[in-house]
Every structure is written in structure tokens, then in C-alpha cells.
Design goal:
By secondary structure, the protein is of the alpha+beta class. It contains four helices and ten strands. It has a single domain (17-178), classed as 7,8-Dihydro-6-hydroxymethylpterin-pyrophosphokinase HPPK (Alpha-Beta Plaits). Strands 2, 3, 4, 5, 6 and 9 form a six-stranded antiparallel beta sheet that branches. Strands 1-10 form a two-stranded parallel ribbon. Strands 7-8 form a two-stranded antiparallel sheet. The two termini are 24 Å apart. The structure holds adenosine-5'-diphosphate and magnesium ion.
Length: 189
């Protein structure tokens, strides 16, 4: 998949820009590829935010509620000047714009965007838990992440993503569908 994104100057980005921030995207309703594409474009359009890499797209067996369609998942690395809670609210706004409604926990969804890591930050509040608590038991999160950041050492972990991915006990199917999403930056007029 090729995505044409508007070119962003580096100096749009202010504080926190050195942090490696990782997001996990998932969708299993209707036009899954379109939801992924739109979510990635909207993330790139966020203030003070820039996408630096996107994994391939993976088709994955659902966890939790049985009988729901398979998911498409991908991982993104971004740089952002937004604070973690501002980023969470911005991502939730994108979920809402793409028609996400919350009914069954872990049930079908048009788009789910989770913050997996925010640099070395560790936060545990009802609103926001970083690192995302179920990361190490979810192959659908780790496998796309391993493609874009195998050497990243998560906070409070003594092993890098590649080790966590290889040793993940999750047996659900995760199948790579595409080559890495190609980001093409266009100079805006
Ligand atoms: P899930 O992603 O677990 O399927 P939701 O997307 O509905 O569920 O999120 C439920 C709540 O999880 C959100 O209201 C949000 O405040 C909270 N949350 C806590 N930590 C995170 C995180 N790291 N990324 C995204 N949401 C989070
Ligand atoms: Mg979520």
C-alpha cells in the first residue's frame, strides 16, 4: 500500500520529539484497509506529529469475543510534541471520526488505536496505562512492532522487542499481508 502524505517540516515539532512513540492499529469491520489508511492519514495530520515508520499489514485471529471477523493490524512509529494524554484524546477523536462505537469489550471495531510505548515513560492511571499492559501477550501487537523496531528496549523490560516477539506465548494466527506501507511525502502548495 502506498500512502501520499503532506510534507511536514521538522520544525513543526517541538518538545518530546526525541521520544520514540509506538502505536498499534486494529480494525475488523467492513472496509478494513480503508479504515487503516484513513487512520494513518489522520494521525499524520495531527498537530506537532509526524509518522516515521509504518509496518506491513497483518491479518490476525481475534482475541476475546469468539465468532468475530479477523483483524487487520499494523504498527506505527511517530514523533510528537503532544503530551501523552493529549495524544490519547487525539487518537480517540480519530477513532470516533471513523465511526468507532464501543459496545462489547474486545468486540468488533472499525478502528482501535492504542499507545504501546511513549519513549521511556511509565504511567499507570485509569485513563492511560503506558506501556500498554497487554503488549507482551499479544502477537498481533508485537509482530508488526518487531518489523519496525526490533532493537527498541521498552521501559521496565530487560529485553528488546525482537526477544519479546520471539518468546511471545500467544498462539493466535498472525499472517503478513503486505509489504511495509510506503509513505510518500508530497510538498504542499
Ligand atoms: P481496548 O483497546 O482495550 O480494546 P478501548 O480502545 O475501548 O479498549 O480503550 C478503553 C480505554 O483504555 C480507553 O478509554 C483509554 O482511556 C484506556 N487506555 C489505557 N491505556 C491506554 C493506552 N496505552 N492506549 C490507548 N487507550 C488506553
Ligand atoms: Mg484501544
Amino acid at each position: 500500500m502506498e500512502l501520499k502524505l503532506k510534507f511536514k517540516e521538522q520544525h513543526d515539532l517541538q518538545s518530546n520529539t526525541h521520544q520514540r512513540v509506538f502505536l498499534s492499529l486494529g480494525t475488523n469491520i467492513n472496509k478494513r484497509l480503508e479504515f487503516l489508511r484513513s487512520a494513518i492519514e489522520k494521525i499524520h495530520q495531527l498537530a506537532a506529529t509526524r509518522i516515521v515508520s509504518v509496518s506491513s499489514i497483518y491479518e490476525t485471529e481475534p482475541h476475546g469475543v469468539a465468532g468475530q471477523p479477523d483483524f487487520l493490524n499494523a504498527a506505527l512509529e511517530i514523533r510528537t510534541g503532544l503530551c501523552p494524554v493529549c495524544l490519547l484524546f487525539s487518537l480517540q477523536r480519530i477513532e470516533n471520526q471513523l465511526g468507532r462505537y464501543r459496545t462489547v469489550p474486545w468486540g468488533p471495531r472499525t478502528i482501535d488505536i492504542d499507545i504501546i510505548y511513549f519513549g521511556a515513560l511509565v504511567r499507570n492511571t485509569p485513563l492511560l496505562t503506558i506501556p500498554h499492559p497487554r503488549t507482551t501477550t499479544r502477537k498481533f501487537v508485537l509482530q508488526p512492532l518487531n518489523e519496525i523496531a526490533p532493537d527498541f528496549l521498552p521501559p521496565q523490560a530487560d529485553r528488546a522487542i525482537s526477544f519479546l516477539c520471539e518468546n511471545c506465548p500467544d498462539l493466535h494466527h498472525v499472517v503478513k499481508l503486505s509489504e511495509p506501507v510506503l509513505l510518500v511525502e508530497e510538498q504542499s502548495d
